[in-house]
């Protein structure tokens, strides 16, 4: 990581980059953003095709409880990775397990889990808020570019690599399983295994994105760029490409713009707001195409 | 002709309600087996039990030499979300290769897709979204994905639903060609004329097997008989 920071600093010194690039934390945040953006962008279309938008939102909110549990169990308040990951996985698996064994409508089930996650998370967060600096909690929940450390980037790199392999290897089968489940089963696709792998991925990216996007807003970044891409794409390749592009741009601009304008906005909030601007632009482009 | 599938007392119950009474039957290679029966008789459920898509009791014994050449399935018209940006070409590609659809497709897969679409009369429509297809076109697409595999057994659920006369002739021709290659065909169909013209064996299902008829007329003449092929103006061209 040090050589990247040195390289960016040297570009600032020779006047290629503006003064904000003299700060190492900005370089760290940008590297994290360049990993998170494509990762969330590539996963987003699968979330849309599998109609799991509400599910990923629920897992993101489950992270609230995961963070509080981590702090309660003695993990560092700035890096409660183990509890966060374990809780998100448990939460997502339990939700999916109940879904596969009952005939409760999926949206109602996710609604129950989402409400419970927020209620439990709020109760625990208020409790642990007495023990730690409340700003640390804010950073974990809504993201902060100041807190990204080398260790976070290595964790992120590992999760991105694992996710990339799983997405590249399984995208086609996951797509077929979502569009025509019976057909996929006859062709030997283990739909249950793919569902659980997908849940694992959602939990992994939630953990990976906590530092920059914040636990609460990860779900939004899985959903908004992919929805924007869906509106203006003519085929599946464009769908994936635009989603990755929108998500990456949102991350980079969401990190840079508040810094350039000296705005006291959490990076997660800025990233999601920029993604929402992209959504509005996509709506306009789609409307313009219809008129044309 | 050899035995492809043997069913021994295969039955289906859901929530303690008996959908199919125990059925014992044999499917033979190079024959077209038609399943008929009224709505709600359990025809599609029978097919799904055979495919392992529904929990059933009894035994299903498969006898085919190459385990990689299992079953091809043509489901009854699937619904696709209209705004989902997945094209016909991409859908077929996902059934042919494991290479993720966001990578550039290799030319062999592209030409394979072109051939399949041509065989079902969907040539020139590869860039249409799944949601833009009519019911008949969706049915043809389902047929195309099955043609992409070389399978011992074909399970086809109401293949003519929504198809115009030309497409019906095209699909019938493909089914007969598969039969001639020794493929075992199991076709759910409600049209008695089509069944009596083309099926070698007819199984009547109504909550269980209520009738079995060997169609000697079809067996004796079918391999020579070809359906009428019509052009877009419904004129017979072959």
UniProtKB/TrEMBL annotation, chain A:
Transmembrane segments: 20-40, 52-74, 80-98, 110-129, 153-172, 193-210, 239-259, 265-285
GO biological process terms held by the UniProt record: response to zinc ion; transmembrane transport
GO cellular component, one term: ATP-binding cassette (ABC) transporter complex
Keyword Signal: no
Subcellular location: Cell membrane; Membrane
Topology in membrane: Multi-pass membrane protein
Keyword annotations of the record: Membrane, Transmembrane, Transmembrane helix, Transport
UniProt xrefs under InterPro entries: ABC_BtuC-like (IPR037294), ABC_TroCD (IPR001626)
UniProt KW DNA-binding keyword: no
Main location as per UniProt: membrane
Membership in a protein family: Belongs to the ABC-3 integral membrane protein family.
Stated name of the protein: Metal ABC transporter permease
Lineage, opening ranks: Bacteria, Pseudomonadati, Pseudomonadota, Gammaproteobacteria, Oceanospirillales
From TrEMBL, chain B:
Matching SUPFAM superfamilies: P-loop containing nucleoside triphosphate hydrolases (SSF52540)
InterPro entries assigned to the protein according to its UniProt record, in alphabetical order: AAA+_ATPase, ABC_transporter-like_ATP-bd, ABC_transporter-like_CS, Metal_Ion_Import_ABC, P-loop_NTPase
Superkingdom of origin organism: Bacteria
SMART domains: AAA
Keywords, alphabetical: ATP-binding, Nucleotide-binding, Transport
Stored Pfam families: ABC_tran (PF00005)
Occurrences of domain ABC transporter (ranges): 5-232
GO MF annotation terms: ATP binding; ATP hydrolysis activity
PANTHER family given in the database record: ATP-BINDING COMPONENT OF ABC TRANSPORTER-RELATED, METAL TRANSPORT SYSTEM ATP-BINDING PROTEIN TM_0124-RELATED
Protein's name according to its UniProt entry: ABC transporter domain-containing protein
Organism the protein comes from: Nitrincola tibetensis
């Amino acid at each position: 990581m040090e050589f990247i920071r040195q390289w960016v600093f040297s570009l600032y010194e020779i006047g290629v980059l503006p003064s904000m690039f003299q700060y190492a934390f900005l370089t760290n945040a940008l590297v994290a953003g360049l990993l998170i953006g494509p990762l969330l962008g590539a996963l987003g279309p699968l979330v849309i095709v599998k109609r799991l938008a509400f599910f990923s939102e629920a897992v993101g909110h489950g992270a609230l409880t995961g963070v509080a549990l981590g702090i309660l169990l003695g993990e560092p308040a700035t890096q409660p990775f183990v509890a966060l990951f374990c809780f998100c996985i448990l939460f997502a698996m339990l939700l999916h397990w109940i879904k596969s064994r009952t005939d409760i409508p999926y949206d109602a089930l996710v609604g129950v889990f989402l409400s419970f996650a927020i209620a439990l998370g709020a109760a625990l967060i208020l409790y642990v808020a007495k023990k730690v600096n409340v700003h640390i909690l804010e950073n974990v929940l809504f993201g902060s570019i100041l807190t990204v450390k080398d260790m976070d980037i290595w964790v992120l790199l590992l999760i991105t690599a694992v996710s990339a392999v799983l997405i590249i290897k399984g995208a086609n089968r996951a797509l077929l399983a979502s569009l025509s489940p019976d057909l996929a089963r006859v062709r030997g696709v283990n739909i249950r295994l793919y569902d659980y792998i997908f849940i694992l991925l959602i939990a992994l990216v939630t953990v990976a994105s906590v530092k920059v996007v914040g636990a609460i807003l990860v779900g939004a970044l899985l959903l908004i760029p992919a929805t924007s891409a869906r509106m203006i794409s003519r085929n599946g390749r464009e769908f994936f490409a635009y989603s990755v592009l929108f998500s990456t741009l949102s991350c980079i601009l969401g990190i840079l713009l508040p810094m350039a304008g000296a705005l006291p906005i959490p990076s997660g909030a800025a990233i999601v707001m920029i993604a929402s601007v992209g959504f509005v632009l996509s709506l306009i482009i789609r409307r313009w195409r219809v008129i044309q | 002709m050899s035995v492809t599938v043997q069913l021994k007392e295969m039955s289906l119950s859901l929530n303690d309600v008996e959908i199919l009474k125990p059925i014992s039957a044999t499917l033979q290679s190079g024959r077209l087996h038609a399943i008929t029966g009224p709505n709600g008789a359990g025809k599609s459920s029978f097919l799904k039990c055979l495919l392992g898509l529904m929990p059933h009791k009894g035994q299903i014994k498969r006898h085919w030499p190459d385990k990689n050449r299992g079953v091809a399935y043509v489901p009854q018209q699937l619904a696709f979300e209209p705004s989902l940006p997945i094209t016909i070409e991409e859908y077929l590609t996902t059934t042919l290769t494991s290479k993720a659809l966001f990578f550039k497709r290799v030319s062999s897969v592209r030409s394979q897709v072109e051939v399949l679409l041509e065989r079902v009369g969907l040539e020139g429509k590869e860039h249409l979204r799944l949601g833009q297809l009519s019911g008949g076109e969706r049915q043809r697409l389902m047929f195309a994905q099955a043609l992409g595999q070389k399978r011992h057994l074909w399970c086809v659920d109401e293949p003519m639903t929504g198809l115009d006369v030309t497409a019906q002739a095209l699909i019938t021709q493909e089914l007969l060609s598969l039969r001639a290659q020794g493929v075992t065909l199991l076709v759910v169909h409600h049209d008695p004329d089509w069944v009596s013209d083309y099926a070698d064996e007819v199984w009547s299902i109504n909550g269980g097997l209520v009738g079995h008829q060997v169609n000697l007329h079809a067996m004796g003449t079918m391999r020579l008989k070809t359906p009428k092929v019509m052009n877009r103006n419904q004129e017979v061209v072959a």
